[in-house]
Amino acid sequence: MTTIKDLAKMANVSVATVSRVINKSGYVSPELTRRVGQAIAESGYQVNALARSLKTAKTHTIGLIIADISNPFFTSVIRGVEDIAYKHGYNLILCNTDENLEKEKLYLQVLRGKMVDGLIISPAVTKSEGIRELLRRHPNVVFMDRKVEEPEVICARVDNVKGTKMAIDYLLQLGHKDIAIISGPLNVTSGVERYQGYVAALKEAGLEPRLQHTKIGNFRQESGYKLAQELLDLERRPSALFVANNVMTIGALLAIRERGLSIPDDISVVGFDDMDWAVLANPPLTTVAQPTYEMGVKAMELLIRQMHKEKIDQKEILLSPELRVRESCKKIS
Q1: What domains sit in the chain, N to C, each tagged with a CATH number?
Q2: CB within 8 Å of 183: residues ≥ 6 apart
Q3: Contacts of residue 1, Cβ cutoff 8 Å, sequence gap at least 6
Q4: Could you tell me the end-to-end alpha-carbon distance of the chain, in angstroms, rounded to an integer?
Q5: 116-167 confidence digits (pLDDT tens)
Q6: Locate the HTH lacI-type domain: which residues (predicted)?
Q7: CA-CA-CA-CA torsion for 99, 95, 140, 111, nearest 10 degrees?
Q8: What DSSP designation does 278 have?
Q9: pLDDT of the residue at 57
C-alpha cells in the first residue's frame, strides 16, 4: 500500500509538501503540486477518508432520510439535494424509512455513527423522541417536505394548504359541491395540511365537509385504491375526487377504471403531485404540481449555510405549488 512517504520519495519532495497538496492546506508551488499529483496518479494512492475525518472532525458526507423511495416524488427531490451537495464537495448517504418510525430511529443511529456533517430528513411523523434527541445532539439538521413540531427547526417544503385550496377552488368553479378527499395520514404535516386546505376551501364556499366524503389514507397505492372503492360504493357518489398524493392517485384511478366509470363524465379527479405519467393518463390528469427539484436544492442550500455557521433569518422556505389543468375535470350545472 502506497504511503505519503512513498509519494514524497517519488515526487522528490518533503512529506509535509505531500500532506499540504493532499489536504489542500498551505501554499505549494505549481511545479511541486504537479509532481505530487503525478506521483499520486502513477501509484494509485487513495486518500484515507476515515483518517482524515478523525483528524478534521469532518467527513464531507450528508445523511438524507426520505419517507418512501418508491414514490417518484422523491426522485426529483433527491436530485436537487445531490446536485448542490456535489457542487460543494459533499457525498450523500441515502436512507429510506418506508414511512416506518422504527426504521427512521435505526437510520438516525446509523448516520450518527457515520459522523455525517449534516442531515436532511423527511420525517415519518410530526412528533418523535428520536427526532428530539437528534436535534439535541446534532447542530446541522434540515427538514424537507415535512416538518416536526419542534421550535426553531429549519425546513424547505411546499405550501400544502395553498395547493389543495387551488384544486378545490377549481372544482367549485366548475360547479362541484360533492367533493370527496382521499387524504394522507394526519400525523405528518403534508397529510394534515392538505386536509386543512380541503376543509378551508369548502367552508369559504359555504359548504360543510361531509364525513362520508373524507377518507384518510397512508400515501400508498393500496389505500388510494381501497378508499376510492369506498367512495364509489356510496349511495350518493361524489361528483369530484381530490387525492392527496400521486401514489394514492394511481390506486384511485385503478378503482374507478375497474368500476367501468369514465373520467370526467362520471367523476372528476384532481391529484396532488404532477408526475410524468399524468399527461399520459386517459384523460390527462389535472394535478397540483410541486417544485420538487427546487425543494431539494433549497434544503441542501439551507444545510450548507447551517454547517458554515451562517445566520439564517428565514428558517422555513415555503415553496409555491402550481395547478396544472388538463382534461380530468368537467363543468356541471
Answers
A1: 4-47 (1.10.260.40), 58-157+292-320 (3.40.50.2300), 160-289 (3.40.50.2300)
A2: 191, 194, 195, 198, 214, 215, 216, 217, 244
A3: none
A4: 79
A5: 999 999 998 888 788 888 888 888 999 999 989 888 899 999 999 999 999 9
A6: 2-56
A7: 120
A8: G
A9: 52
| Least confident among 101-110, 218-227, 289-298, 316-325 | 101-110
Spatial distance between the Cα atoms of 320 and 135, rounded to a whole number of angstroms? 27
Q: Note whether 85 and 92 are within 8 A (CB).
A: yes
Evaluate whether 140 touches 310 at the Cβ level (below 8 Å). no
Distance CA 300, CA 291 (A): 15
Q: Are 128 and 148 in contact (CB under 8 A)?
A: yes
Which is nearest to 152 in space by CA: 163, 139, 161? 139
Cα–Cα distance, 143 to 151 (Å, whole number): 12
Residue type, 319: L
Instruction: Give DSSP secondary structure letters for 97-164.
Output: -TT-HHHHHHHHHHHHHTT-SEEEE--SSS--HHHHHHHHH-S-EEEESS--S-TT-EEEEE-HHHHH
pLDDT greater than 90 at residue 4 = no
How far, in Å, are 125, 134, 135, 200, 260 from residue 122 at the CA level? 9, 14, 14, 25, 37
Q: How many CB atoms lie within 10 A of CB 127?
A: 11
